[in-house]
Design brief:
Layout lengths: L1 H10 L4 H10 L2 H19 L2 E4 L1 E6 L25 H13 L4 E6 L7 H14 L4 E5 L5 H10 L3 E3 L7 H7 L6 H13 L3 E8 L6 H14 L3 E6 L16 H14 L9 H6 L3 H8 L3 E2 L6 H4 L15 H14 L3 E3 L13
Parallel strand pairs: 1-8, 1-9, 2-3, 3-4, 4-5, 5-6, 6-7
Helix pairs in contact: 2-9, 3-10, 5-6, 10-12
The structure holds 5'-deoxyadenosine.
Length: about 350
């Protein structure tokens, strides 16, 4: 196992069979070695810096019906909301004062937010905060729409591929959503010049070492700037209500693997990771992650953006939460910085 980790660090790629061997042979000792190498690689490029992104969950209306997701359209129990432009801008204002230099607009695929409405919003945010990066995460759109938003000033786009195995994809999504359409969106976004993030849940129903190996091969092929990986957590009002939640150690292991495969990747210790363990985010950083994405949405809508149950939401005031996060990172030897946190070149800081 150790030899495979060394090979991964050196060649930044493994074959499908090698990925499967590593995932099947994973044990405590291998994980400890992986995390040590992942931290060394990340330190070489990013030092002890942790980047923060202010997450604004601006709408939980969604026209899609993904089987795992709490805001799927057929969940009639979900209390729907959307933030107004003013509310969104006020989240940015609050975030900027707290040192956020990236805002992430995340939402369901909400027809109310037409390409033009989004364009206006992007122009406003980038107009007021030209020194900030703007990340969008609003699902599959046409090339034209992605271009419109890029030209309006959007910098990054998060669109998890969810699983790179066709058959597995069809077990997680309704028929009209396809892996090929999802991949096409990711390639289009890349071509348009976005910094792109793909990713997947760990422990989603029907996942196997084979499908995970496919995920790793796809990530290698896409060479994204960002990768979002978090445990699957069941939501009571979805078809997957009774499925078990994803494993913490496997999630950490995958974070480490992705760090070795893509040394300069921006890798968040996700909210879902913080939800399944009180120190989940610290553990994520220690496994190779270098990004945290705290929630900037107004208190009163937070519990409504429930993709899964018991989602981490620190009821505490934001300023307090912000210094708490800084403290948590300091305790493990890292430092939250005020910066856009763009991808850096590998030899920049050597
Ligand atoms: N558990 C964990 N993550 C989830 N997501 C959606 N539903 C769940 C769930 N039940 C993730 C998906 C999506 C991202 C925004 O949230 O991977 O891309």
């Amino acid at each position: 196992m150790i030899a495979l980790i060394d090979k991964l660090e050196k060649s930044r790629a493994l074959s499908k069979e090698e990925w499967i061997t590593l995932l099947r042979g994973r044990d405590e000792q291998t994980a400890a070695y992986l995390f040590e190498r992942a931290q060394a690689v990340r330190k070489r490029i990013y030092g002890d810096r942790v980047f923060i992104r202010g997450l604004i969950e601006f709408t939980n209306y969604c026209k899609n019906d993904c089987f795992y997701c709490g805001i799927r359209c057929s969940n009639k129990k979900a209390a729907r909301y959307r933030l107004s432009e003013e509310q969104i801008l006020s989240c940015c204002r609050k975030g900027y004062a707290l040192g956020y230099r990236t805002f992430v607009l995340q939402g369901g695929e909400d027809p109310y937010y037409t390409p033009q409405r989004m364009e206006e919003l992007i122009l406003k945010i980038k107009g007021e905060y030209p020194d900030c990066a703007l990340t969008l995460s609003v699902g599959e759109q046409s090339e034209e729409t992605y271009r419109l938003w890029k030209e309006a000033g959007a910098d990054r786009y998060l669109l998890r591929h969810e699983t790179a195995d066709e058959e597995h994809y069809s077990l997680l999504h309704p028929k009209k959503l396809t892996l090929s359409a999802r991949k096409q969106c990711l390639y289009t976004l890349k071509e348009l010049g976005y910094q792109v993030g793909c990713g997947f849940m760990v422990g989603s129903p029907y996942q196997s070492e084979e499908t995970l190996a496919e995920d790793l091969l796809f990530i290698h092929e896409l060479q994204p700037e960002m990768v979002g990986i978090g445990p699957f957590i069941p939501h009571r009002d979805t078809p997957f209500a009774k499925e078990p939640q994803g494993d913490l150690e496997l999630t950490l292991f995958l974070l480490g693997l992705v760090r070795l495969m893509l040394p300069a990747v921006l890798l968040p210790a996700t909210t879902a990771l913080g939800t399944i363990h009180p120190e989940g985010r610290e553990k994520g950083i220690l496994a190779g992650a270098n990004v945290c994405m705290p929630n900037l949405s107004p208190e009163e809508v937070r519990e409504k953006y429930a993709l899964y149950n018991n989602k981490l939401s620190t009821g505490s005031e934001d300023a307090l939460h912000r210094s708490e996060l800084a403290k948590r990172m300091e305790r493990i030897g890292y430092r939250v910085v005020v910066a856009r946190g763009d991808p850096e070149k590998e030899n920049q800081n050597v």
